[in-house]
């Protein structure tokens, strides 16, 4: 099986692929804290933190990863100290991954009102995805995006229905 093509579409601006990995690292730490809060019985604190994380996912899904606060932090603090990236990446798959994170954490927030254990489950699911992206560079949301593009359900680079 060939490696998926995540290069930017012609005429579009790509992003440094290390930026989403950096963002996923911050998200993984926040989700790990959320998990600990939920597991030690601080359900309200875990729920509030999951709301904050869901809002950050919303920001990334609506504004795009280029305008996310973690991306701004990466560009200001880390990017100037690194060598240029070997290749640029299409911002559509990581932006779609933010939508996937929003769905998971959003469901956790909503269902967590009635079933507090759902907050821990949602945080655990999102943590796994963020950890895989930050440590191994494997973006589950990006893979879902590419599967939907291949199935013809969305158009590449637009995130709209085909």
TrEMBL record:
Q: Keyword Hydrolase, does the record have it?
A: no
- Tell me where on the tree of life, at the top rank, the source sits: Bacteria
- Give the residue spans that cross the bilayer: 21-40, 46-65, 99-129, 135-153
- Enumerate the spans annotated as DUF4395 domain: 15-150
Q: Name one Pfam family in it.
A: DUF4395
Alphabetically sorted, this entry's keywords are:
Membrane, Transmembrane, Transmembrane helix
Record protein name field: DUF4395 domain-containing protein
Which organism encodes this protein? Gryllotalpicola protaetiae
